[in-house]
Amino acid sequence: EDKVVQSPLSLVVHEGDTVTLNCSYEVTNFRSLLWYKQEKKAPTFLFMLTSSGIEKKSGRLSSILDKKELFSILNITATQTGDSAVYLCARMDSSYKLIFGSGTRLLVRP
Amino acid sequence: DGGITQSPKYLFRKEGQNVTLSCEQNLNHDAMYWYRQDPGQGLRLIYYSQIVNDFQKGDIAEGYSVSREKKESFPLTVTSAQKNPTAFYLCASRWAEAGYTFGSGTRLTVV
Fold first, then answer.
1. Which of A86, B10, B51, B101 would suit a FRET pair with B37, their CA atoms being 20 to 30 Å apart?
2. Is B99 on the interface with A (CB under 8 A)?
3. pLDDT tens digits for A23-35?
């Protein structure tokens, strides 16, 4: 089935903690895996992953893709209250459509 | 600045009414998309258009209609046939193999 599954559904941590968000997908034929951060309105782009095993980094955020095991993780180190958001994972298929997971809601407490 | 503009931000509809959500982009992107987001859910694809004068149904097209008469514009009509239209609607555009650019969304409520 054409599904993207994210875990955990929600997470509460304290500032300074490190978190790992998971995303698995069930279709082997795909183009890329994307991560977005959604606070109030529009999702904002974080990463696009196309190759397996190559970590992408942006400040305290990093992500990696495993195309053999069909999953990706998003790591956030030294979390801050501004990291509180819903993190969305999406698979881009061969026709460039995005299929989203249900998201992980992260709350970072001071 | 280039971007995607969705209007209105908030929309209230009476049952049985059709309403149209606007989406305009000045990014010169060929492809445009409409997604629906329900509370605690991810985004689900309603309709998409890869090129002017052409569009395809997404996963939840029933009760919705679109047009793509201009490259810049991709309006979504929520018809009375959509039985549960209360949701957050996001429009997006894409250029080549790049990721999507999203608008700020329209929150539709049935009253």
1. B51
2. yes
3. 999 876 688 999 9
